[in-house]
Amino acid sequence: MTATEPVSIAGAFEHPTREAPDKSTMQLHAEVAKGALEDAGLEKRDVDGYFTAGVPEYETGLSPLVMADYLGLDPSYTDTTDFGGSSYVAHVGHAASAIRDGRCDVALVTLAGRPRSRGQATGSGARELRTFQDSFERVYGATNVTMYGMAAQRHMHEYGTTSEQLAEIRVAASHHAQYNEHAMYREPVSVDDVVDSRMVADPLHLLDCCVVSDGGGALVVVSEDVRSKLDRDCVELLGFGEAIGHHDAGRIDVTTTAADRSGSRAFAEAGLGPEHVEYASIYDSFTVTVLEAIEDLGFCEKGEGGPFVEGGTLQAPDGDLPFNTDGGGLCSNHPANRGGMTKVIEAVRQLRREANPEVQVDADVALAHGTGGSLGTRHGAATVVLGREDR
Amino acid sequence: MTWEPRPVPDVTPETEPYWTAAGDGELLVRKCHDCGLVYHYPRSLCPDCFSEAVEWCETSGHGEIYSYSVARTMSGWPDEDLPLVLAYVELEAGPRIMSIVDADPSAVEIGTHVAVRFVDAADSTIAVPVFVPVTD
Prior knowledge:
The structure holds two protein chains of two kinds.
Chain A: E1 7-14, H1 25-40, E2 49-52, H2 63-71, E3 77-79, H3 87-100, E4 106-113, H4 144-159, H5 163-177, H6 191-196, E5 199-201, E6 204-205, E7 215-223, H7 224-227, E8 235-245, H8 259-270, E9 279-282, H9 287-296, H10 305-309, H11 328-331, H12 340-352, E10 365-373, E11 379-388
Parallel strand pairs in A: 2-3, 2-4, 9-10
Antiparallel strand pairs in A: 1-7, 1-8, 4-7, 5-6, 8-11, 10-11
Helix pairs in contact in A: 5-9, 8-9
Chain B: H1 16-23, E1 28-32, E2 38-39, E3 54-58, E4 62-71, E5 84-91, E6 96-100, E7 113-120, E8 127-133
């Protein structure tokens, strides 16, 4: 299938809060929705498509009903695809399909959550059994961080990747975060700081892990007809791909992620390759999440991620592949324990030249990639390739 | 030794033979007669070919560690069970299954040979398979 009608991101807004003890998750959804619509120059009544996943304080599974009611929306099209943090990247692609099918013209995508205020032990807490598979996994005390730890351990075993190489990813993120006034952790860190931080789940240290923050974000995806009437720089969606990775009946390879398929699908639709990407937002729940995604998206050969990230490759503005220039999930925020939304937002900022000046990259083509769920078992992957209108 | 207060598996009609076999000291996998796939976790239709001609097979209970991680802290888990070695064990029978290696973390590496042990769940006839290092 070839995408023909241009589809653009007209509005992007990230909630500035990182801790919201006195707000509800619903309120955060509304605030980011308002912010993104204002950014686009559109009104709430213009919205005819609505996309969200998960309203964590109310785990009803009825999020389109709950949220459309709260926000006062009248969408002709809704989608609540939920594969964790990659969902919101996927929603951009799904919105594009709906727009090209004539189902809607102005699609609103929202995410919000308050895990920090709620005191959730996000990555290192045992969880109750919720899914069929949990009886074979969570029953053993599998946590998010140990499952990513298994991915890192095997990657090290097969390819000689080191803790110091993983640490380079945090170092680059922290370098960028120092310029982001909203980032939770703005202090630049060194490789030694990372490998000397306490071990959480071998071989992942505390500074290999993302922050736990409140917050949210929203995007407005529009048809060409709407875009042409807006007085706003928009960012064109050039390509989208999604994929699911899983246990594969017992053949799981924890060194490879579904990014190998979501990325190639997005690049094929864009008619571009990784060599064309000048800025990359890559989901960073843990340092190893970035390392494996970089390989699977084709920025380097499989197993070469460790050497690739050495020497400032990921640091803006001068590295070969500047990434996560807001500080990312590792340093800035990870709202609702789901970072895919902010990956798209920072890519939009970069293409619009609205990133923090010290890390602004002269990019015409950017990529945003989300990883949801766990590399140790089931995960979603969603990739968008984005371009400047005037590229 | 009992499994609780750790979580006990949700035993369904589809998986009940797996858990009761564990209670009898056997680790089962499933095998598809049509395509030959040996798979875990158990399910009634072959996940490769959707055949219903699948059977339970006893395994040797031996395997080696494919990967592991050591939880140093974990909220909601008994302190006396920490640090906890979570692992994928690649069974001799084929599939990689997630479990615990009941050992000091210093005794565990990728490739370490392990054998199954069973920990009773207090309130029923089922047991939960875990692994311990063994020398060949």
